[in-house]
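Re: the request from the purification team.
They wanted to know what the chain is likely to look like in 3D before they choose a buffer screen. I agreed to run a prediction and write the result into the notebook, where they can find it.
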Amino acid sequence: MTKEPQYIEELSFGDSVRRAGKTRGNEYGEYDAGPDNGRRGRGRHRLIAFVAILVILALAGGSVGGWWMWDRHWRQIPITVNGTSMKVSVDMTLGRLLRDNGDFDAHPGNLVDVAGDMIEKHAGKPIVVSINGAAVRRDAIDSTTIPQDGMVMVTSGEDVTEDHTVSKETVPHGESIDIAGGSIQILKQAGKDGVHEYWVGKRSGKHVDKGVTVEPQDTIVVPLNPRPEGKKVIALTFDDGPSKYSGPILDILKEKGVKATFFDVGEECLSFPDAEKRMLEEGHQVASHSNTHPDMPTLSRDALRAEIIAGFSNMKKASGHVTKVLRAPYGAFGKKQWQETSDLIDMNVLWDIDTLDWKRPGAKAIHDAVMTGAHNGAIVLMHDGGGDRSQDVEALPGIIDDLKKQGYEFVTIEQLIKMAGDAGDTGGRG
């Protein structure tokens, strides 16, 4: 009995394929040119294409990854360490650079005794590291990468001196006070005492004389007669105010467009605060004429200092104005007074034209005294307080007008000194 060929259905790449059972032909590998062989070929081609795409993607991914590794890790960049050029990987941290190079022979400082002898090696301050001039904290060196062309400096730490006690002795300062012949006495340098130190080490027990650790600085006061070169200037000054006469004088100055300097008495500042505020608001200079107008050379050191301090203090209370410029009452202020108060004042302003207005010689006499003595850099003494100053009020308009006719410009004491600069005659100093 003859068997009929059997047909079996299989699933291949989603297609139904009918395959014949074993026959003589296909037992020997004979090609079956049946209708399903075209589908089988197309499936094989798809598989090959898919594999090729995977290979291309893998190669591309490997190329991108390699470039990233090179750019972020393997690439070499130039840097400079302590002036020497070198190349490092782009991801080099400061900490790794130091470890790889033995800290470039830098080391922590030592702990030394008060005499400078070593107590303990490398127990001082740590190594100092900077990049492009900016110091890097020790706790940040392992997270700090070095930029391209970065300039790294690695320096040894400083030595640290053992804990010690310090005893100090004052070194008195000297002085150079030359005030003769100047219409202004200026403090050029404030005196400061020096310091001599002695150290005793707490660990070593050593006693060391450290010598003068702070040099003394001399008090230097010089006389000045301001003579601004190429100028024709004069300074009007008024003492003993503020008072009821200050207002009329300020009215005249405002009308004439003139600035002046007022040397006010502290107690009077409290009595006429509005007048002093007006002086300042209208651009005049305000300075101190003491607190109670005493003869300063007759005062003790403590009383003198208290008088000057009170004058400045009451001025500040009255108008908020702060200054260290003084005109001593009667101009009486010598070397001894400078020695006792040079830390309180910057200058003592005198005058070179005294109108003697306090004698009430008449408005014309006051006017003539100014015109006779007028010169470039002159300081005129008048009064707006301390008595009847009606003659000053009467004389002032003519004084201003006639000085203007002669080409004078009116300035404050502060302006006069600035204008003079180095052109100030140093009076008794030659």
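For the purification team: The longest strand covers residues 164-171.
Please add any questions underneath this entry.
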